[in-house]
Amino acid sequence: MTGAYGGAVTSPLPYGSWPTPITSELVVAAAVRLDDVRPDGRGGVVWGEGRAAEGGRTQLVHRAADGAVTELLGEGANARSAVHEYGGGAWWVHEGVLWYVDWADQRLRRLDPGGEPVVLTPDPAVPRGDRYADGDVAPDGTWLVCVREHHPREHAPASEVVNEVVRLDAREPSEPQVLVTGPDFVAAPRLSPDATRLAFVSWDHPSMPWDDTVLTVRDLATGVDTVVAGGPGESVGEPVWQVDRSLHFLSDRTGWWNLYRWSPDDGVTPLVVLDAEIGLPAWQLAGARHATVGDRVVVARSSQGFDALAVRDADGTVTELDTPFTAIRSVRADGEDGVVCVAGSPTAEPGVHRIALAGTVTTLRPPRDLGLDPATIAVPEPMTFPSTDPSGAPREAHALYYPPAGEGPADARPPLLVVIHGGPTGAAAPVLNLGLQYWTSRGFGVVDVDHGGSTGYGRAYREQLRGAWGIVDVADCLAAARALADAGRVDPARLAIRGGSAGGFTTLAALAREDTPFSAGADHFGVADLEALAQETHKFESRYLDGLVGPYPPARDVYVERSPITHVDRLATPLIVLQGDEDAIVPPNQSEMIVDALRRRGVPVAYLLFPGEQHGFRRAENIRRALDAELAFYARMFGFALPPGEDIAPVEVEVG
């Protein structure tokens, strides 16, 4: 075995207690979330950096054509939108000019090169009552369109929130002019090259954007709408106008999110059709998985959990580019010979890269130089394993398995951490994630489960969760753990499960079973009471459970039956619960219900409430505390010592 610090270990320590350079301090040190990248129209690029060390705020960074790098936002400014609560599309750029939404007030600002921000949108009567995102600028730079989400009063119920496409003066303050209203949701407003037509995506409750959406083109002079694609059973998105006034967009009409072209003369024709996913579920606005470069088209496609870039030549031939990247986002054309994107691999965190169609990769914003011995990094193994559907019939599920980064005592097997992504339509990402390597470098095996309902395996796999949330996902997590235990790769007596948000629900549901194989769990802001979630959550997800569980209130009995809080009498597994006190998606009372129930039953439970955090932790000190507290909890439950030298504080565990 190679030790965590690069030396040979002659007397391996017990699994879980290995010393490692991947401490919680390293996890957050200079850590950033790269949220998007866009060419500036002048040979440079702009990208967003979510910085844990700065309270999780998003700074916008400009790299000029000569390589000079400049931070664009002043101290405290935070380019982040609250539309749909998950945001996305909080900034855009045109010919060197930047527009962005500040998190504090959700108003839209313009920033000229070398200038000061100018607020363009009115001060709403309700603080943060008007939220903006996902904009597009007219070719002459004089006006723009974007999504506006209007909240008429504080804590307005979902039924009162209105989502519209509005038009604004791009240069100075103006009153927004409503262009599109009526649908429950709108996204991706995009202006044609001559600014005479507007493409936009819309959908209505109870659909989510990966269920049923419609792509419409409106003639701005006449107001006449043309439905391009979409409707029941089809998810469309990411419209991008072409210089010939045709429109490229994604559709899953074949069962996979593939690329199509529409023109008024020819209608819809396929461009890139693969048994692979080009699209991603639109939890956030302004996704970009395809770009036109000259007479060629570049797409990011996902197959069996791994991304790659593919190029369609003018003759229709599709070939894959040879790059090291396995997780790719924000693909945007950059000149006539390449694209820029945010991309990473199993051994490198995401960075900003320019990829020429000839295959050359130029790194514009490198990932952190972690200085790690390669032996410290666990590389994922694709895993397909047997599971069952709600009727008990056999089916297959998928995961990425990360073995411990070394070998422990010959007479022992490692503990296993089953990780469940959010969504639940998300997916495991095969990219270096220090928050995951934190565990493998200490001697844990980690399996990142792509349960039924996950993205990356086609619409049919995604829809396996329809009406079956809390059943199919739970079955797959149990099956993954048992498959690894049966294969002798992990210790069946030390199986743990963790998840956040929707993954937190799956964690709780997996533990609230008499046959659960897990002996510990970690719930990160998870759902304990489905009925409470259906009644309390924000507009974007207020009808999401119609598809995952059933319509509410007609299916109330199913909500009650599926809720972990209903089955607290079965909860006998020690649990640590981590929650942000400003979470509008899964409010703190959800976590507190399960904690109180465990306390009453005398089940060991630890509860950490983080002030100032929303849905997911963004502040460095809270990310560190959450990781270390979870490790301390497992150490206590599984009986291993914490690595010396890290000064990890014990976690308070209540028993009765």
Give an overview of the whole structure.
The protein is globular. It is α+β, with helices and mostly antiparallel strands and 656 residues long. Helices cover 14% and strands 33% of the residues. The chain contains 10 helices and 36 strands. 53% of the residues are buried. α4 packs across α5 (502-511). The two termini are 42 Å apart. The protein has 3 domains: 27-287, Neuraminidase, CATH 2.120.10; 288-367; 373-383 and 395-638, Rossmann fold (3-Layer(aba) Sandwich). The longest helix has 19 residues, at 620-638. The protein has an 8-stranded mixed sheet, with helices on both faces. It has a 4-stranded antiparallel sheet with strand order 1-2-3-4, with no helix packed on it. Strands 5-6-7-8 form a 4-stranded antiparallel sheet, with no helix packed on it. InterPro entries: 6-blade_b-propeller_TolB-like (IPR011042), AB_hydrolase_fold (IPR029058), Peptidase_S9_cat (IPR001375), Xaa-Pro_dipeptidyl-ppase/CocE (IPR050585).
Q: Which key terms come to mind for this protein?
A:
alpha+beta; 3 domains; Rossmann fold; 656 residues; Neuraminidase; disordered N terminus; 8-stranded mixed sheet
The CATH class label of the largest domain is: Mainly Beta
Q: Within the largest sheet, what's the order of strands?
A: 29-30-32-31-33-34-35-36
Unreliable stretches: 1-11
Structural class: alpha+beta
pLDDT averaged over residues: 95
Instruction: From the 3D structure, determine the CATH topology of the largest domain.
Output: Neuraminidase
Taken from the alpha-carbon principal axes, the silhouette is globular
Radius of gyration (Å): 24 Å
CATH superfamily placement of the largest domain: TolB, C-terminal domain
What is the strand content? 25-35%
Query: Can you give the helix content as a percent range?
Result: 10-25%
Number of helices: 10
Number of strands: 36
